[in-house]
Amino acid sequence: MSAVEAIQDPGPSAVRAGSNDIAIDCRVEKIMYGQFLAVRDSHVPIQKGKITGFIGPSGCGKSTVLRSLNRMNDLIDGFKLEGNVQFLGQDIYDKSVDPVVVRRYIGMVFQQPNPFAMSIFDNVAFGLRLNKFKGDVAGRVEHALRRAALWDEVKDKLKASGLSLSGGQQQRLCIARAVATEPTVLLMDEPCSALDPIATRRIEELMLELRKDYTIALVTHNMQQATRVADITAFFAVDISKGGRTGYLVEMDETARVFEDPREQLTKDYIGGKFS
Ligand SMILES: Nc1ncnc2c1ncn2[C@@H]1O[C@H](COP(=O)(O)OP(=O)(O)OP(=O)(O)O)[C@@H](O)[C@H]1O
Fold first, then answer.
1. For residue range 12-62, what is the model confidence (pLDDT) as tens digits?
2. pTM
3. For ligand 1, is residue 162 a contact (CB within 6 Å)?
4. Which of 30, 40, 63, 112 to mutate to test the pocket of ligand 1 (most atoms within 8 A of CB)?
5. Strand 106-109 and strand 90-91: pairing?
6. For a tag on the chain, would you pick the N or C end, based on fewer CB atoms within 10 A?
7. Sign (positive/negative) of CA torsion 276, 245, 60, 64?
8. CA 27 to ligand 1 centroid distance, Å
9. H or E element: which one contains 224?
């Protein structure tokens, strides 16, 4: 089997169907950046067809764990994961697996809208070309822009630069770019932090719409955002007991449960604003 074939196409029904309702089963024993222990002992299962929100104080490892779910951290020198990340039962860190293929099925949207300095059309077609897609590129681009609720605003200027759009439009363009390859999972790392409240609301509505077809994992600093969009919430904290600053998962449950009746005192204190 070639490296590219090592991740099997899960097919469109994989998001909701199946006996197992876990899209990504992430078991972190340790995540290191060089000698620094960034995250320890966290089991973070991402359920199919749901939005899982990661919350917690700065430096608790939310982005680190999120980026581990599609091997985005491989690009960082010194990064090392001890543990196991399974996507639909397949080990994404297996030596035979090509990270580019992992990211084709587990797409990512970043904090800062980061369209490439190319046309709106080419931005969305980028991943398709990277993956040597042989089908109807224009059809896929239109479909992705519609899914990202941007088509009506850009259909008459597809050749204009992606950089000419407003911040909120740029973020929707990045979402279109991410969904163009028809991933199974979308990872969103604080996708609204650079946006105004109206653009934020728009992206939140879009996330709820996208949940019908995709599994979503979302890092957010905004607890209200987690209560508005996340079905499941994972709360991380920082352990300073051994002289370091190591993130770990404190609890993970239905969002209503985490916010209204948390199991752990630490979660209560964080949600109650006793620390940030
Ligand atoms: N590329 C890197 N190299 C070294 N250390 C890193 C790197 N990225 C993150 N870290 C460290 O790992 C820890 C977790 O960082 P991470 O960005 O995952 O936390 P976070 O919870 O997402 O924080 P924030 O909410 O501030 O974005 C922090 O102590 C951070 O300084």
1. 444 444 447 999 999 999 999 999 999 999 999 999 999 999 999 999 999
2. 0.91
3. no
4. 63
5. unpaired
6. N
7. positive
8. 18
9. helix 223-229
